[in-house]
Amino acid sequence: LSSSVSGVWSSSPWLTWYPYQDRPQGSFSTACYGQRRRGEDLRGALLRVRRFDGLQQTIEFNDHGDAQRRLYITRVSGGRYVVEAG
Fold it and tell me: Full-prediction pTM beyond 0.70?
């Protein structure tokens, strides 16, 4: 997310970024909203769906809700993202 976007981090039940808008955007919770079943909470939908196509790679969640994916460490230099490790 851009540093110009205002928002708040929520830690319950998942650490999620919520921009100051009407509904969450820019997170896995957004992807799960449309896939929830009647009476199913967001966490249940996330654990049921498990696989999401991310910007750089597919992200899969295990039974404990941990993301199984490759980690990239980046920095911004001259207005561009530079991969430090990954």
Answer: no
Q: Which amino acid is at 75?
A: R
Q: Which two tokens stand for residue 25?
A: 């955007």
pLDDT tens across the length of the chain (86 residues): 333 344 444 555 555 554 444 444 456 666 666 677 788 777 777 778 788 776 677 888 888 777 777 777 888 999 888 888 76
Q: Cα 14 to chain center, whole Å? A: 9
Q: Which residues contact 62 (CB under 8 A, 6 or more apart)?
A: 68
CB 14 within 8 A of CB 65: yes
DSSP state for residue 37 in the 8-state scheme: P
Q: Are strands 16-19 and 51-53 parallel, antiparallel or unpaired?
A: unpaired
Report CA 25 to chain centroid distance, whole Å: 9
| Cβ–Cβ < 8 Å for 16, 29 | yes
